[in-house]
Description:
The protein has 413 residues and is α/β, with parallel strands linked by helices.
Amino acid sequence: MSLRTMWRRGRGILLSLVFTLALLEGGAYVLVSFLAHSPLTTSLFYTRPAVSAKEYEDYLRRRDPRLGWPPPEQIGSENYARTGARPVPAFPQRVDACVSAYGDSFTYGSDVGNAEAWSAVLSGLLGCPVANFGVGGYGTDQAFLRFEYNTNDRAPITFLGFFPPDVVRNLTRNAYFALGVFPTSFKPRFDFTDGRLTLLDMPQIPLAELDHFLDAPRDFLADDKLLPGSRFGPVPIRFPYFLTLARAATQTRVVSRLRGRPSWSDYLNPGHPSTSFDILTGIFAQFGAECRARNKHCAVLLLPTPQSYRYYQEHGRSALQSVMAALDAHGIAYLELTPEFAARLGERPYCDLIADNSSCAGHFNAEGNALLADIVKAYIAGKGWDVKQDAAVAPAGTAGGNAASGVRDQGAR
């Protein structure tokens, strides 16, 4: 074979290889672009958000100075009454609540109106107002802090809602890293070090440093567990895109799903390297301590997801075993809602209770909220808790350590 022939053949092989790689890279780019904009997978990827100076100035002006959101200007609106709770149409006048609840959008009852929210339905069943302090996008950390800061909450019964994906939200002070949406959504979080929880306040990024932060968030949030490109953070989208895709495929949440488990399940393993389990159970311990200091009856609502409900049907046990064991160890009451829903649904699919039945996406619909209210009412009755009993609220800082310094004993085992 002549050198000319060998050159031509080698060149042909090289061109075929380049063409194949180009096709693979182009396909990877298209797939990454699609996944990065899909509601179910957008949080796996990090795209530098575009935030104008005016948008950021408006955000700084409107945000809640301690929790991030909701903006104080929304208190007293159709979304939040003057107490900060969701309005209860059956009790338009301010009346002391008999039950209060804190959590994220599933606790709030997004996707239904005020009268259809589970807390409003429960108000009718109990004959007294239920103050729903849930806020969309909250982590367990913000939900607990909203309870701790709200010393005007004199309800004798308080629930802390836990929606399992929130265990990931607890790992960051920038909700954009966890959700992939709402680029201006700074929040506080708890850090777990040497057996203690320490409250890390919400970041204060001035407008002059905004571009620097967006380009290099590590320079401002070095302690964040969800930094883009880190072990547990979203994957930055960059060339080569097939490597971006490969990194996303090895994310903890993706691997869990490929193994037939809920995407968040590994984060609920004791000793998880992100300290997610330690942070979560430490928050629960502080919730229990705060409740005891205020002389309240309290419980954690363990809310189901489509994944956890499917896991329960397939395995006959809850996907939240580790959480329930930790709550038992701390002597904190809880209501695992998955078996309760299963008992009432029978052969009907769980998605019948979700706003978008076809995709099983969104929050509970009116039927789901009514069912939740009925289960909670039965739980309160089963516990023998008196909704009419007065509850004394202790001054801020009497439970959970020094609220001003933000240092709290973790107390978990």
